[in-house]
Amino acid sequence: MSQTFFIETWGCQMNDLDTQRLSGTLKLRGWQRVEDQTLASLILLNTCSIREKSEQKVFSRLGELRELKAAANGGVRIGVAGCVAQQEGEKILKRAPWVDFVMGPGSVGYLDEILAGQRTIAVDFPDDRRYDHLSMDRPSATKAQVTIMEGCNKNCTFCIVPTTRGREVSRSFDDILIEVRAAIESGRVEFELLGQTVNAYRCPTTGRDFGALLSAVASMPGVARLRFMTSHPAEVNDSMIAAMRNHANIPGYLHLPVQSGSSAVLRRMKRLYTREKYEEIIARIRTAIPEIHFSTDIIVGFPGETDADFEQTLELMRRIRFGSLFAFKYSPRPGTPSLKIGPPVDDAIASSRLNRLFELHEEIKREFLDSYRGRVMPVLYEGPSRHDPEMLAGRTDDNWVVNFKGDPRTPLGSLVGVRIDQAQHHTLRGEAIA
Ligand code: SAH
Ligand code: F3S
């Protein structure tokens, strides 16, 4: 019988990709992936530490696995990967001695060595990250996510990512194109380029920038849609905007985390832009791409955030009218500079700010979605709708989910023209047009 593994993933797309690499590597070595942890001889937790809550979940999961391990009588190994592994290192083995090894995001390419050892703690950032695209276990037959850079050099004062993912390292232009080409040959039509600050990309050998990479990938025959995550406002430049405008297969969608509408808070966060500068960047992009859908991240309750600061965040939300919002209460992270700035805002106040922000955004989103009614949108067909098997589902160019009436024989991954007739809570409804 072949060896079996179970892998559980928390957190961002970077972790999703690390799971695809770990899983693919194991499969190439003859391991079989199982969805039931009790059938596994190896259990991997790929963890997230962006906020305290995500970290607590990991330790409660490890508590559950203690019993499983005892019952398996030495027949199962448990590994902790991802950002909690990097952040806590050896402390995990002390706190949960039933864990067999701990490996950080820099060690994903070193799984063979780690499995060969015992009670290994791999938390280095080797210069050679050993990225082998042939060992990617991609969950979708039509979509491929591709890492173009790892780590982050920005050091926002609230953020643990620079500690857990290390300094910024970009992959070479040619490597990326080779990976995309191979994925096209395997039938993928939709691509997502990933990095913590994806638009800080610079080819290490030729110096070509993110805009050049976008243009090169978008020009490859077979790329129906090209997305990317996450852009940093201070790294937006003309070459990136031009690439987005010039290629029809790059969606009119941009996730551009702002974090706060107050320049005073932004300075303490070390975000490297003011509120005015952020609005200027948005205006520049809107001039080039008028129908763009902006999405953002906001933190409320950062140390020292006053009512007046928060009002400015609401005002910014009203002015920019973000279509999508990911908002969080500030969570103090170990070793981050924000700990020295002061304590978080009182929890009840932070919660009420978060609620007010979500309420305002709900109104804006409803109007935004309503404005699609009557329009015909290109939708990339992804499969039957989850809620209603009679309907098909896909995404618009600018990232909204659409459930639509259409021909169930439509091949996966094709672009279908859909007339939008209804806006629902988070999604659109419509009918395919001939
Ligand atoms: N690389 C991306 C995102 C990093 S983490 C960027 O450039 O913004 C994703 C989001 O989590 C951040 O945008 C931020 O809004 C939120 N976040 C990060 N650290 C946080 C913390 N300590 N408390 C609350 N939210 C946090
Ligand atoms: Fe974190 Fe700021 Fe980088 S949010 S990932 S330090 S850009």
Q: What this model shows, in words?
A:
With 434 residues, this protein is α/β, with parallel strands linked by helices. Helix content is 36%, strand content 21%. The strands form 5 sheets. It has a 6-stranded parallel beta sheet with strand order 2-1-3-4-5-6, sandwiched between helices. The longest helix is centred in the last third of the chain and has 24 residues, at 347-370. It is globular and about 60 Å long. The chain starts with a strand and ends with a strand. The mean pLDDT is 95. It binds S-adenosyl-L-homocysteine and FE3-S4 cluster. FE3-S4 cluster is lined by residues 152, 154-156, 159, 161-162, 196-197, 232. Residues 50-51, 158-159, 161, 196-197, 230, 232, 257, 259, 297, 299, 328, 330-331, 333 line the site of S-adenosyl-L-homocysteine (SAH).
Topology, please?
Layout: E1 4-9, H1 13-28, E2 32-33, E3 42-47, H2 52-72, E4 77-81, H3 82-88, H4 90-95, E5 101-103, H5 111-116, E6 121-122, E7 143-147, E8 149-150, H6 161-165, E9 169-170, H7 173-185, E10 190-194, H8 210-218, E11 225-229, H9 238-246, E12 253-255, H10 263-269, H11 275-288, E13 293-300, H12 307-320, E14 324-329, H13 338-341, H14 347-370, E15 376-384, E16 392-396, E17 401-405, E18 415-423, E19 428-432
Parallel strand pairs: 1-2, 1-3, 3-4, 4-5, 5-6, 7-10, 10-11, 12-13, 13-14, 17-19
Antiparallel strand pairs: 8-9, 15-16, 15-18, 16-17, 18-19
Bound molecules: S-adenosyl-L-homocysteine and FE3-S4 cluster.
